[in-house]
């Protein structure tokens, strides 16, 4: 199960879904596909569940969807936003987050 660190908050704004890291002051703007994946994982879903939802709701090839989920998990772990960074692999799928300060 994916969990954000205690000092990382997720919120919806007029501009999309945002993750705020209160420790560093940085925030990440998530596109709609990344937001769907994150919400699925935070609700207790597995990577495969998130990929299935992504494939269904956004008409994405299931193989690409799982790659996109893996990339997002890798980015969240690398950024230190999750309690235990998931063991995901990166297959060159496009990034789903934009880091901003």
UniProtKB/TrEMBL annotation:
One Pfam family recorded for the sequence: PqqD
Disordered: annotated segments: 80-101
Domain of life assignment: Bacteria
InterPro entries given in the database record: PQQD, PqqD-rel_X, PqqD_sf
Record protein name field: Lasso peptide biosynthesis PqqD family chaperone
